Structures are given as structure tokens and as C-alpha cells.
Amino acid sequence: MTEQQHPLWTPCAGRRTASQMQGFINWLERTSGHRFSDYDDLHLWSTHEREDFWQAIWDYCDVIASHEATAVLSDGDKMPGARWFEGARLNFAENLLAPAQNPAFRNKAALVFRNEDPAQRRSLTYAELYSQVAQLAQAMRAAGVEAGDRVAAFMPNVPETVITMLAAASIGALFSSCSPDFGLQGVLDRFGQIQPKLLIATQGYLYAGKTIDCGERVAAIRDALQLPPQQLISVPYPGLTLSKPQGSVSWQDFITSSQQQWSEDDIEFAQLPFDQPLYILYSSGTTGVPKCIVHGAGGTLLQHQKELRLHTDVRADDVLFYFTTCGWMMWNWLVSGLATGATLVLFDGSPFHPAPDVLWKMAAEEGITIFGTSAKYLSALEKAGIKPAQAHLQQHLQQQQGKPHKVRTLLSTGSPLAHESFDYVYRDIGVDIALCSISGGTDIISCFALGNPLLPVYRGELQCAGLGMAVEIWDDEGRALAPGEKGELVCTRAFPSMPVGFWNDPDGQKYHDAYFSRYSAQKPDGVWAHGDYAERVAHHGKDSGETAGLVIHGRSDAVLNPGGVRIGTAEIYRQVEQLDEVLESLAIGQPWAGDVRVVLFVVLNNGQTLDDALRDKIRSQIRSHCTPRHVPAKIIQVAELPRTISGKLVELAVRNVVQGLPVNNTDALKNPEALQYFRDLEELQHD
Q: ω before 354 within 30° of 0 (cis)?
């Protein structure tokens, strides 16, 4: 009997019955005449009857549109090439701001801003948010912004960033953002490709107790983009006194100096096609200039509402939080939560300052019910010995005039969530929490696999494939693999949140090469190869309505191949990082003696030094719980591991450095100086 056969958590009958997923099933059965025996049955229908399914999502989520579609899906067998909801006209911002038109929501908090300074807490009601979006949208129109123009934000996670996105979307302009921890070249590699009509830029920000002045960088960005003064809007940061760059206009002056004769609550929502470009997001850029991924308004709206309402069970009375910067797609996902009428918490700053439990204290204070973060954060929290379930017990907090957290759903993404992190959550954060490990990406601005309020949680697993997402695991020859076999995660049928295309890719070749070239010989009409090395898990108990989950083993381009055996890096990290001595690790394959040997780099806790005893302990841990093929030939201590701005390990960059190959775009890294630890290592020059 395997460990996966025993759920760590099972939703009670009341929770399942009250969930929006069950409500959707009930509604669908009433309106369509279909009957669904379990989630598998619903999922199968959603991927085979895509027109009916996505129209049902449109109707169930009350999409606001001035014109309904004349055809839900055309050329549905083509990927890319499928066309969704032709003839429909809608506006993304109008749908997100819909609660502001409901008297029951107008005075409800839409956004709560928090940072490292508790005195800077700020709250905006739905009515206030609507009014501020209206003012900015009018100012943008007066400045000449039109549908199809680009509005770029070099901004922290503050309300003004949300307001900017909504104002741009109301006009039909494309919104694109970089967080202010990006270096100058990293910003120019992104915004330089899209030539924004307006740049909204922060004067600075606060991180780990330090004030970071962005004035010089913003001025350099302005000069490189050749923006006139009226097209650079400078935004003050809460609680900081910083100067706006020369040749810019302040946020407040931009709004007030452009005022026309209009009602402050008047927004002219441009009614645009379903696939009207909405966002430009960027690939990580660690192997070259970042790809500019264009996402459409309708597909983003439908996919996010499906995921937020059904899979995450977000309701109007929820307080939704995701720890993210504006340079990660989870920010875009979080902001779509406005359409549900929930309150969104925006946090800007270090999650470990002034103490490692700062986000959990905030969760208690704000009544956060759905808490989103990264797998790395949960691992670091456990290493720091933080136990929110104990630290925030009622008796303790009453003495501190506080209260326990109300988190009922915990979301994790960014990298595979280790099995042991599942244990940590249920042992030290809460026994009655739906732990949803989710996986998708910037490429689809959403998820392929995620949570489900109807299903139990199993150790190390993502609960299910998302509705409408025809997810399979394929081998190198394009054959679908059985549960338990590892291979490439693919999606075999088109879905609405596929990118509209790439910016500056007129013939679509870059777009095709990124996702569809892998299996073009086996399936000329296209299959999406996502780049994840994964496996489906066998059903745990079909007779009880339980379904098959997924396990992600890492990125397929980082898969190790010693002796021809494919190994996901996450399998190694899971074992190594259980050891108290190891803070984090990174593995690569090094060509050696006609084969590939596994090299493991480790960062140790508390200033420890790697010795032969610890090397033996690491190897024993891996050998005992994996296979001899997983055991690294070399284990090397380094001071730091390189990461992208969004916190993901960059195995490929390290592999290139070790092999003496160039790393083309170090500005995409949060800490490019860490690459120095991997250059010309004497230990890798011999057996």
C-alpha cells in the first residue's frame, strides 16, 4: 500500500455541498439535462464538449457583454488556430468592476494594501476603486491612449497598479508590468520591445526594512524608451518621501490636469472582441531576450473565473491573498478575483521582515480565508521553525489582542510542492485546510492542474486537471502514458486562454516553436507541450468518486539523464531538503566520460560547512528514497543559488556556466552575482 492511498485531508459533506463546483454541477444538470457521476465524468465532458462547457462557464459566471457570440468555437481542432466566441463584444475591466454596480458591494472593501509598515495600511471600497479607475481612464483618454496602445507599469504591488490595469483595460489598451526589483536592462528587454504609450513608475519601494530609491532607474528607462514628460507618470510609495524623476508628471497631477466634464463614476467601457489583447507577459528571459506573450481579454476572463470560482471556491465573503509581485502572472490571477466580489489583500515587501511569521500575523488581522504563496516560501517557513497553528492559538493571541487565522484554503505554485511540505501544512498550519498545489504558467496565464473543493488532498499531488483542459502525459514519441509513467505534460485540445500570440511575431513562428513544435510530426494540427516533466497518479478509489491527481517532477528541459534514465530534479530536491543541515539545493547534469553525471549544489543552514560525513548523509538519503541513479556524483557547497525575479531556480543557467557556455540574459535573474559560485570549479574537472 503506497502513501498516496491515504488522504491527508478530505472535505466534509457540508463543504462539498456548499462549494461552487457542486453548485455548477447542479446548475449544469438542471439546465443541460446531463448527469455527472463524479468529477472525472464532468472533466471528460468539459474537454470533449468544449463549446457547451465554455458557454456554460460564460453563463454561470454571468459574463457581461454587449454582444453574444455567433459561434463559441471555430476550427477547434487547430492548435494554434482555434477561434473562440467570435462576434462577442465585452470589456475585461467592466466584468472585474461589476460588483461596484451592485448596491450590496459598493461599500465593501475591494482592495486592502499592506506593506512592512503597519501604519501604511490602506483600504479601497468597490465604489472608491471604480471612481479612481474612472478618473485615471479619463486622464488616459485625454493623453491620447487608444485601444491597442500599450500601458506599462514599473510598479510594486500597490492599489495604483491595479487601478492602472483596469483603466487601460477599460479603453482596450494592453497592460504590461515589471516589478521594481528588475534591473535596468531587464526592464528594457521587456518594455523596449512593446514601446508603451504611457509608463507608470514608482518613485521607490520598501523591502526588508530598506528604502530603495528608483529615481535613477526610472530616468534611464524613460531616456531609453524616449518618452516625453507627459508620458511618464511618477507614483509615490506609501510612507516614503522620494523625489519624482525630472521629466515626469506626478500621478495626481496627471489625473487632475486632464479632467474633462465627466461624472466621476463614468467609465466608458470599450466593447471589444473576445480575443482583444489585454496583457503582455514575459517569459523568464534566462536563455535570451524575453518572449512577449500576448493574452486576450475574453480567454483570460473565462479561465480565471473558472479557476477562482469553481476550483478555488472564491466567494464574495472571502478575503483573497496571494504573495506575489507585479512581475509574476499570479498578480494577474489575483486581480481577477475582483469579479467575484471578494476582498483582495495586496502585500508589498519581504515575507520574512521583521519576522518569518509576518504574513500569518497579517492573515489573522485581515481575516484572510484563501492564502496563496510559493512552494519555496512554505519550505523556508518550515526551515525557520514557524508554526502558525501554534503561534496563533486563541489563548496566545487574546493576550496579544489578536485572533487566529481563518485560512481555509492554501494555494502553492512556482515550483513543485514537496511531499514533506504537505506534511508541514497539516501539522503546523492547520488540519482543516484545503491545500491546493497548482501548476500552469505565464504561457497560459492560468493552470493546467489545480485544486478542487470536492476532492481529497493526497501527499505530493495536485488534485486534478482543470476543467476544459485536456491534459495528458506523453512520451518522446507522442504516445499517451499510463498513470505512474513519467513524461511530458501536454494539452491535446485548444482552450480559450492560449495566447493570442507573441508580440513582434507576424508569422507566428516564435509562438509555434515555443509550444507546438515538440510533437508537430506526430500531430500536425498541434498539441501544447508545456515543458513540465510529470505523471498522472492512478485513481485512489473510483467507487468513492475520487479522481486521478498529478505529480510535477520539474521542468523537462532540466531533466537529468544519467545512464539514459530520466530523472526530475524535484525528486532530488525533495529528499535533500528534508535534512536539517540543507537550506536549499540545485541539481544539474554534467557531460562526463561519454555519459551524464549528476552534480548537486547545496546551500547549508547556519553557516555549516560541507564535509565528507554530510556528503555521505545526503547520498544515503537520496539512495534510500530514490534510486542509485539519483545519487549525485559530486556534491558542492555554494553560498547562494541563482533565481529568476519570481523566485524560480535557474538550473539551465547554472548548467551553462558549468559547461563554459554563455548565460545570455543575467538581467532576468534576481541575483545574477550568484552565478560566480559555479564558474571554473576545480571539483568538476576530475572524477
A: yes
Amino acid found at 580: D
Residue 415 has pLDDT above 90, yes or no: no
Q: Which pLDDT score, from 0 to 100, does residue 264 have?
A: 62
d(CA 683, CA 640): 18
Between β-strands 343-348 and 319-322, what pairing exists: parallel, antiparallel or unpaired? parallel
* The pLDDT value given to residue 82: 97
Q: Are 378 and 412 in contact (CB under 8 A)?
A: yes
**Contact in structure between 472 and 465 (CB atoms under 8 Å):** no
Are 214 and 180 in contact by the 8 Å Cβ rule? The answer is: yes
pLDDT surpasses 70 at 549: yes
User: Rounded CA gap, 550 and 460, in Å?
Assistant: 9
Task: Name the DSSP letter for residue 358.
Answer: H
- What is the mean pLDDT of the segment spanning 594-623? 93
The answer to whether 585 and 572 are in contact (CB under 8 A) is yes
Q: pLDDT band at residue 260, thresholds of 50, 70 and 90?
A: low
Angle formed by the axes of helices 39-48 and 50-60, to 10°?
110
Q: Which three cell numbers stand for residue 204?
A: 521607490
Cell (9 digits) for 548:
486521478
Q: In the numeric block, which cell numbers belong to residue 676?
A: 560566480
CA distances in angstroms from 579 to 512, 568, 585, 657, 684, listed in the order given:
42, 19, 11, 27, 24
The three grid cell numbers given for residue 379, joined into one nine-digit string? 519550505
Please name the residues in contact with 647: beta carbons below 8 A apart, sequence gap of 6 or more: 374, 376, 414, 670
- Percent of the chain past pLDDT 70, that is, above it, reads 94
* Maximum alpha-carbon separation in the chain: 77
d(CA 136, CA 143): 10
Cβ(121)–Cβ(112) below 8 Å:
yes
d(CA 178, CA 168): 16
HSE-CB of 459 using CA atoms within 13 angstroms = 14
Residue 3: band (very low, low, confident or very high) from pLDDT cuts 50, 70, 90: very low
Hey, what's the cell of 117?
509598515
543: pLDDT strictly greater than 50: no
CB–CB of 130/162 below 8 Å? no
Q: In the prediction, which pLDDT does 293 show? A: 97
Q: Which three cell numbers stand for residue 369?
A: 480565508
d(CA 676, CA 663): 12
- How, if at all, do strands 464-465 and 343-348 pair? unpaired
Q: Is 554 left (phi over 0), alpha (psi -120 to 50) or beta?
A: left
Query: Three cell numbers at 317?
Result: 465573503
Cβ neighbours for 562, distance < 8 A, ≥ 6 positions apart: 589, 595, 596, 597, 598, 629
Of 259, 264, 270, 271, the C-alpha closest to 134 is 264
pLDDT above 80: residue 377: yes
Please choose, from the candidates 350, 359, 312, the residue with its C-alpha nearest in 3D space to the C-alpha of residue 334.
312
